[in-house]
Amino acid sequence: MNELSVSHLLGIKDLTEADIHLIFETADHFKEVINRPIKKVPSLRDITIANLFFENSTRTRLSFELAEKRLSADTINFSAASSSVNKGETLVDTVNNILAMKVDMVVMRHPNPGAGVFLSKHVNAKIINAGDGAHEHPTQALLDAYSIRERLGDVAGKKVVIVGDILHSRVALSNILALQKLGAEVKVCGPKTLIPKHIEELGVGVELNLIKALEWCDVANMLRIQNERMDISYFPSTREYVKQYGLNKKILNSLSKEIVVMHPGPINRGVEITSDVADSKQAIILDQVENGVAVRMAIIYLLASKIKRNEN
Q: What is the C-alpha separation between 256 and 269, in angstroms, rounded?
């Protein structure tokens, strides 16, 4: 199989295990490309991609832009803050206006869950979901799973704990779905108030004690507290949170085995992890950033090959 079973990347739930392996194998190839002196391939010279960000994002937007440029695609960037959306234009009108400029693919981050699915039904372009509200962030989950595979050789059979603000995190849901499809065991850990009520129904274990969770896992993915999504206080204070759920070098060194530490960024140093953990050799945070470009190149390339086939 050398093509994806889906026409858009809207969420991990739509992908098969074979799709994920195909994305990873394609990313392996692109990882070689981005480590060459000339980091570009002419694969998508005739494809135009619009990056639509209705929410602020520096890392994801830059990663997508770089992936597109490495594939030689033409890109246009659209930031909602300075757009007609502020004047009341609808999402479909905004996108259709952009598509009238002959755009083939749209990468979109939007504050509303399901925005990408809605768009895929109303516009004629390939859609990549770069994060929709607190719902899904599929490319982040894919690059996280790819980074685990790179460091540990395989995802199947590994134990991964996701620590922190599970309730508001689109990264958590996408990660859970991707890791389970690849055969990993997943637990979540954090204050009870930040763990969604029925999360066990996803086949996920819940552990409220950080040390126990770390002793169990091979990989700990530390999420930041999403203050911008909180309308009430979910724990007494940041200091209290750090005391119970912050990962420092002392804790890391006290474990009975060496674990891998991940973080989707941006890091609040000194809150979810301390600097000496973030910069330690057990952390693969910068590998995640590098792999993000390769994985996004793979996704864009695989979706674009469907456009080209339709045209032929």
A: 25
Q: Do residues 222 and 272 touch, judged by C-beta distance below 8 A?
A: yes
| DSSP code, position 87 | G
With contact defined as beta carbons under 8 Å apart, do 51 and 75 qualify?
A: yes
Q: How many helices (H) and strands (E) does the chain have?
A: 11, 9
pLDDT tens, position by position, 158-199: 999 999 999 988 899 999 999 999 999 999 999 999 999 999
> Model pTM greater than 0.85?
yes
pLDDT digits (tens, 9 = 90+) for 277-293: 999 999 999 999 999 99
Task: Give the domains, in start order, of the chain with CATH numbers.
Answer: 12-135+289-311 (3.40.50.1370), 138-286 (3.40.50.1370)
Residues in the chain where the model's pLDDT stays below 50? 229
| Nearest C-alpha neighbor of 293 from the set 41, 117, 53 | 41
Determine the 3-state secondary structure of 113 from DSSP.
Answer: coil
SS3 of 88, please?
A: coil
Number of residues that this document lists for the chain:
312
Name the amino acid, one letter, at 273: I
Using DSSP bridges, classify how beta strands 126-132 and 105-110 pair: parallel, antiparallel or unpaired.
Answer: parallel
Residue 130 phi/psi, 5-degree rounding, is: -100, 25
Burial class (CB in 10 A: 0-12, 13-18, 19+), 231: exposed
| Strands of 184-246, DSSP E | 185-189, 205-207, 219-222
Q: Which amino acid is at 235?
A: F
> Crossing angle of helices 59-70/17-34, nearest 10°?
70
107-133 burial code (b ≥16 CB/10 A, e <16) = bbbbeeeebbbbbbeebebbbbbbbbb
Peptide bond into 266 cis (omega under 30): yes
Query: Which neighbouring-strand residues pair with 269?
Result: 273
